[in-house]
Design a protein that fits this description.
mainly alpha; 213 residues; Tscrpt_reg_YcdC_C (chains A, B); DNA-binding; Tetracycline Repressor, domain 2; HTH_TetR (chains A, B); homodimer; 76% helix; TetR family transcriptional regulator (chains A, B); Tet_transcr_reg_TetR-rel_C_sf (chains A, B); DNA binding (chains A, B); Arc Repressor Mutant, subunit A; 10 helices
DNA sequence: GTCTATAGGGAGATAGAC
DNA sequence: GTCTATCTCCCTATAGAC
């Protein structure tokens, strides 16, 4: 075991990283399009331009591959949503939070759908992630909201139900986009549709929670 | 073709109806628990206490069976949600609508999950149903809301985004109940959790849309 | 690391006796 | 209508040559 790698090892590591990224990105598309169970490793291999055996070389089983895809999604997700900054008050923070969540639904629709499919299927991997997220991140946001309530900056609403609602409203534009398209009678959602969603949801939350500042 | 049936035919029809109901009810449970693609006709047969061939006798293919399950779900659903009564004004109507949707999430969780799974998988059957629903029902509700806005009874919000949000918030307690349980740190959701959800969502919608009466 | 060929296991669906 | 046995297909996963 050494940190010094010979050129050959570096090359191998590079090939490995490149192939893994290719497989993960392709899997994300195929899983989102076909559904988790209907997706076959053959489909992924074909779309990635690789023999099926190579996919299994990098990810022993389909389950391993799905978990790798989920892990990658969740890591990128966490980085793209800001934490609350208590000093700025609820208006700025909630507005930013909703905006970022809707942007996520738009720019990362596939990731969002895969997460939703895994969640509705109660995949252990996702449930564990959520349990952990609750302990590390959300409990902090919860305290912040309670501070704002005590300072009279917003109505004393249930923090849990508030988060559940914001997630539901913002994710629905990615997860159930087929339904949204029918409602809006459009073949594809445009940037303006997402902006209107942002505007509507932000208004409902801010006014609905009686946010002062 | 005659309306008069001989006793033998009546018996057969009875057996048929009974078995079909048994299969549909069992399928609803299994589909919701296992996911649509992971469910096998064998699982359904076992849980219903029938040989697999009998399931295929009544529903030629798995796809036919899923569509029959969806059709049954949607028929029961439509009957359990009231239409808007314009004269009563937005407060009563929106409160009742949210309450009925949450009750549905609680009492018919399996149906809700199957619908969500079919929708996220963009099953043609469900998309067609929604398109039809939009034409027959929702366009009427939309007009009603616009009347209320004109009468100054509520703020001029986007009807489409309002419906999308109410659906998202109420359905999430059924479809993603695993996530809700983690958030609320409970092993099972109780009646009081659903009542709190109702209370929170109703408040956000009524205050958020500036509903006067 | 790459790839062909194949093992091994079920799944959906049906034939045909009762 | 019921049920056993079976066909056929295709999926995951791996062995083994290159």
């Amino acid at each position: 075991m050494t940190d010094v790698k010979r050129p050959k090892d570096q090359l191998k590591a590079h090939i490995r990283a490149q192939n893994q990224t290719l497989i993960l990105e392709t899997s994300e598309r195929v899983f989102a399009r076909q559904g988790l169970a209907k997706t076959t490793t053959q489909m992924i291999a074909d779309e990635a331009g690789l023999p099926k055996a190579n996919v299994h070389y990098y990810y022993r089983s389909k389950k391993d591959l799905l978990e790798a895809v989920l892990e990658r999604i969740l890591r990128l997700w966490l980085d793209s949503v800001s934490e609350f900054n208590a000093a700025e008050g609820p208006r700025i923070n909630l507005t930013r939070y909703i905006s970022e969540k809707i942007d996520q639904s738009r720019s990362n629709k596939n990731a969002s759908k895969i997460f939703a499919m895994a969640l509705i299927g109660e995949e252990t991997f996702v449930l564990e992630y959520l349990r952990n997220l609750f302990v590390t991140e959300l409990s902090r946001e919860k305290v912040t909201i309670q501070e704002w309530v005590e300072q009279g900056l917003m109505a004393p609403v249930s923090t849990e139900h508030l988060f559940i609602s914001i997630w539901a409203m913002t994710q629905t534009y990615a997860d159930f986009d087929a339904q949204v398209k029918i409602m809006l009678q459009k073949d594809e959602l445009e940037k303006s549709d997402y902006e209107e969603a942002k505007h509507f949801i932000t208004r409902m939350v801010l006014v609905g929670c009686d946010v002062k500042d």
